Amino acid sequence: MPARKEVVEVSGREVIVSNPDKVFFPGTGHTKLDLVRYYLSVAEGALRGVAGRPMALKRYVNGAEGEFFFQKRAPTSRPDWIEVVELAFPSGRTAEEIVVRDAAQLAWVINLGCIDLNPHPVRAEDLDHPDELRVDLDPIPGVSWPQIRDVAMVTKEVLDDLGMRGWPKTSGSRGFHVYCRIEPRWTFPEVRRAALALAREVERRAPDLATSRWWKEERHGVFLDYNQNAKDRTVASAFSVRPTPDARVSTPLSWDEVPGCEAERFTVDTVPKRKRFAELGDPFERMDDAADSLERLLELSTQHEEAGFGDAPWPPHFAKQAGEPPRVQPSKRRKASGKPERQGVVPPPAPGKRAGPTGRRRTTMPLIEVARAASEAEAREGLERWKERHPEVWTHLAPPDVLVDSMRGRSSTWTRIRLNLRNVPEGERPPQEALEVDYDPWEGIEGWEDQAHRRS
Cα Rg for the chain, rounded, in angstroms? Predict the structure, then answer.
């Protein structure tokens, strides 16, 4: 029998929802149609976060617990009322991306299996000048939620002192976001430079809570990811549902709510109309009323540079930038003479694998690899099994010793977990064992062994 479809009338158009009864959130029972109805119930707020912006499609065709893939190019089979715009990427390639402006287009995108919405920080009318500066607070493993809230409030303090207004929201995942509406007259590199200055100032004011350091081995507390402002980076927008077991929502807040907010309170059941959204409206409703200048943040960046702080590392898929420091981890940088340090060893791979925890690279840290998984949840389940087998080792590990990496695959990301045994007495360190989860994103690709070896 043909799969069931449901027609939803939205904004004067008929939107077909395919497989409406497919369960997208097994833990809560929410279906694909429930997801469409959620977005329509908060359409005013959800559209405010994406309207007029090119959008990367992050598709979970089998629901929140299935694999996802990013689709930058708009589907060729689409209604004539779906808008697109051609976007150029740092690689030099171009693609037509979806632009959503009304609720019908929004529902059509959700029907593709997009659980969260990932717009670029520019409008389709001007693709070269962002109108949003995005502060992404990304905690390292083990950081508590109250500390994240504290860093958010320090961020507000810095913005207030600079005469800028921040718009806070939960990320719907582990972190927190603060947006700034800015005048669209600065380029992506300039906006990123301003974001880096902001991150460094927050770190200066709260050095025990926050960091602007890019390399994971140097991070502590909450990382302010300035590189989310580089071109081609996207962030889950306001009112986006996230692929969490409880169908959590990235929820706009007032600043008065931030000190006492709990991220798990905001879900597809608690946020829509007749509940939070109906009672409080959208805290971001006035966001577009006034745009701020970046001039004072850029002046702060100049002060940092005069004090000896240069640029910071860019995302790995970007070409090397002028003035960028060496794009290698600090523990592996070359000596002043320019000759590579030969300290450390290349850790052995897990049984049956060609590449180990660092690929071909040497390290002075005693690293082992625990899991390679299609999802972070699967990788963490593997970590739990490892912990059960090595409880005496786990007591020596601190949160920074658990390295959770999101790795690039063919069309989606996968997760690797490594452990740094530096705080474990040498005689008690377990050897590299078979991976608890052994996922191979390159299986079936010609030359996949070399690709995996290079990327590990």
Answer: 23
